[in-house]
Design brief:
The chain is an alpha+beta fold and 309 residues long. It is 19% helix and 29% strand. The chain is built from six helices and 13 strands. About 14% of the residues have low confidence.
């Protein structure tokens, strides 16, 4: 779960060799077994039934997911499942939080031929951005420190080109737990400052495990030029909760409140004549239980597409 609260767990560093083929699972019904399921993500907005190949190629696809690498239970199967999701959906951009070194090594073996990897750290746990080589050109990247973090958190930034369009891609895992609300909101303010200060010819996309409540976002306030992608798509109810212990049984806890911890924010380019990214669709992924009896993560992943006009 996104709330680490300073708890350290021993990590399993070794994985067994395996195939990356994912068992077909029904993602419309969280918690359904892989034996009964069909592979169909829970789509949260209208998408054309038969989009043309040209239309699909013009869209930017993105997955954001806290993969819960700190959970040592059934790590090999969960790592295989994660890679299989990325292979099957083949997103242009991937934002990952709570990576650990063993996850990173395994993913590079499976995906390095197709993706460039950018990491926000190398030890303990960290964030990562994956960029599809055939679609995204990496120009530059940086790690922006959060000066007062107590949980090793930072902001990972990549400057890229997509179909000739300048994008600034950012991910983070904001400070966890209720006692860290003030720090979390300071981090959100820094993220918003970076988004608003980006050049006018650049489109900015931020996504990650924010650990934010709606009240905290209201207290900080979003700049007028920044939109919450989920809200922009009409607040689809079946994409509201990305951390849902009522359904996801990876964490054995009594506290069953649901949260929209994982969020995407968009600041469109403001310069005249620059193509615009518009939110097109959103889905939750990772909703089926694996053969080991656990889910890929205690968070659902977000799969989102943007039209590029």
């Amino acid at each position: 779960m996104g709330q680490l609260c300073g708890v350290e767990k021993s990590l399993e560093e070794n994985t067994t060799s395996c195939t990356t083929d994912r068992k077909k699972g029904e993602e419309n019904t969280p918690g359904s077994s892989t034996d009964e399921a069909q592979d169909s993500p829970a789509v949260c907005s209208d998408v054309a039934e038969n989009p043309s190949e040209e239309e699909e190629n013009s869209k930017l696809s993105l997955i954001s997911w806290n993969v819960d690498g700190l959970d040592g239970e059934e790590q090999p199967e969960r790592m295989r499942s994660l890679c299989s999701y990325l292979i099957s959906h083949s997103p242009d951009v991937v934002f990952l939080q709570e990576l650990i070194p063993s996850y990173s090594r395994f993913m590079k073996k499976q995906l390095a031929a197709k993706y460039n990897f950018i990491e926000g750290g190398t030890i303990n746990y960290f964030t990562g951005i994956l960029l599809k080589k055939s679609r995204i050109t990496l120009l530059d990247s940086e790690i922006v420190a959060y000066p007062t973090t107590q949980m090793q958190r930072n902001l990972l930034v990549a400057q890229v080109l997509f179909k000739g369009q300048k994008l600034c891609l950012m991910t983070s895992h904001l400070e966890s737990c209720e006692p860290s609300a003030a720090e979390r909101m300071r981090q959100l303010r820094l993220v918003m400052k970076r988004m608003t200060e980006a050049p006018a010819d650049v489109t900015v996309l931020f996504g990650g495990d924010t650990n934010l409540t709606d009240d905290e976002v209201t207290e900080v306030g979003l700049p007028g030029c920044v939109c919450d992608v989920w809200e922009q798509l009409g607040e689809p109810e079946n994409c509201r909760y990305t951390w849902d212990p009522q359904v996801n049984t990876n964490k054995n806890i009594q506290f069953k409140r649901q949260f929209r911890f994982d969020r995407l924010y968009l600041r469109p380019a403001a310069q005249d004549g620059v193509p615009q990214l518009e939110p097109d669709s959103m889905a939750l992924i990772g909703l089926e239980k694996l053969e080991c009896g656990r889910f890929t993560s205690d968070h659902w992943g977000i799969l989102c597409t943007f039209s590029a006009e």
